[in-house]
Specification:
Pfam families: HTH_18. The chain crosses the membrane at residues 12-29, 41-61, 67-90, 110-132, 138-157, 173-194, 200-219. This protein folds into two domains: 2-226, Up-down Bundle (Rhopdopsin 7-helix transmembrane proteins); 246-353, Arc Repressor Mutant, subunit A (Orthogonal Bundle), CATH 1.10.10.60. It has 17 helices and no strands. The protein has helices at 2-29, 38-62, 71-91, 108-122, 127-136, 139-160, 169-194, 200-206, 208-225, 229-239, 247-257, 267-274, 278-288, 293-309, 319-326, 331-342, 346-353. Helix 2 (38-62) runs antiparallel to helix 8 and helix 3 (71-91) packs parallel to helix 6 (139-160). The radius of gyration is 24 Å and the shape is elongated.
């Protein structure tokens, strides 16, 4: 009787945790455009995937998995994206010029597994479908998943060792929660292989860790979005500091000193060069320009390339050479920034000038 009650409570908490994950995913992605950036989009996707994985565990425990054809296979595929998306999310705080998005090579193995799932679901009775299912259900695939998670755990740890990620308390908590769940699953997997089988109820209890974390994150999210009058007044007073900044001088300094040419430039480094508090520069970019840091700096870089294309100075450089001189680290980030700013590609823009 007591065990039955414990199972019901565990199931209820996990169900609420699933709802919290989906709600957090929605809240993060619906932020105002000036505050919505690559990191919040990745975090939104991460919560959606984790919610789906926990929901699959609940379905398996309650026996409802058979009612939703393909959900378990899709959920297993999504689990392959958790570690790389977590890494891309943490990496996005380094303010590199490369966008951390779903086109990243770090997600290629997830797409490969998703292709296997698609073959198995679309062609379940065919030879290809059976072949795909045999690969997905093999012990080797479980080993591959755990090894890949271990590799990304190391990469995440290395990102946190960098100077400008030392104050990411919430991000460390999220990463720690996800990695702890993986570590617990790995221990239980080894126990199941070498000692004895385990009940699905044990795995359901593991997800309680992240369900508890979602309660705290959701509480914090609503708390941040509902400022008290006194706190709102302090925020308004703080925003009044912005008019004291000479924006024209600040922008001119960036252009004259060509700080944007540094491919490793981040917001903290630029704030130091401009002798400004990091928070003031961040607020200026967000409020006055409605851009994130990458968009703000890439604007200077694109303008330098445009100025070169419109003059005779570009003949001694290739277009990509101009982009690298302006501070772009990759062709993909340059072409994306150029098209966003000018509505066309650099080559077509040059042809229009001819």
């Amino acid at each position: 009787m007591e065990l039955s009650i414990a199972r019901d409570i565990t199931l209820l908490i996990n169900a609420v945790g699933v709802g919290n994950c989906f709600l957090l995913s929605y809240l993060y992605v619906r932020q105002p455009r000036q505050t919505l950036n690559n990191a919040t989009e990745l975090l939104s996707l991460l919560f959606f995937i984790i919610g789906s994985v926990i929901l699959n565990t609940i379905f398996n425990f309650t026996g409802y998995s058979e009612l939703f054809y393909g959900f378990e296979s899709i959920s297993n595929a999504l689990s392959f994206a958790i570690a790389p998306i977590l890494y891309l999310y943490i990496r996005s705080f380094n303010y590199t010029n490369e966008e951390q998005d779903l086109r990243s090579p770090h997600l290629w193995h997830f797409y490969a597994y998703l292709c296997l799932v698609s073959l198995q679901l679309i062609l379940p009775e065919s030879l290809i479908g059976h072949w795909a299912k045999s690969i997905m259900d093999s012990l080797a695939m479980i080993v591959v998943w755990n090894v890949h998670f271990l590799v990304y755990t190391v990469l995440v740890a290395r990102e946190f060792q960098k100077k400008h990620t030392q104050d990411l308390g919430i991000q460390k908590l999220i990463a720690g929660g996800i990695i702890s769940i993986w570590a617990a699953n790995l221990i239980l997997f080894l126990y199941r292989i070498f000692v004895a089988p385990l009940s699905i109820f044990v795995y359901l209890n593991i997800t309680l860790l992240f369900s508890g974390l979602t309660f705290w994150l959701l509480f914090r999210k609503f708390k941040d979005n509902s400022l008290k009058p006194g706190k709102a007044r302090r925020k308004k007073v703080a925003s009044n500091v912005l008019p004291l900044l000479d924006e024209e001088k600040l922008v001119r300094n960036i252009i004259d000193q060509k700080y944007y040419r540094d491919p490793e430039l981040n917001i903290r480094k630029l704030a130091g060069l401009l002798e400004l508090p990091y928070t003031s520069l961040s607020e200026l970019i967000n409020r006055r320009y409605s851009k994130n840091f990458n968009e703000f700096i890439n604007g200077f870089r694109v303008q330098e390339v445009v100025d070169a294309l419109e003059s005779d100075s570009h003949h001694s450089f290739t277009i990509m050479g101009l982009a690298e001189r302006a501070g772009f680290r990759s062709a993909s980030s340059f072409y994306a920034a150029f098209k966003k700013a000018k509505g066309t590609t650099p080559t077509l823009y040059l042809e229009q000038l001819a």
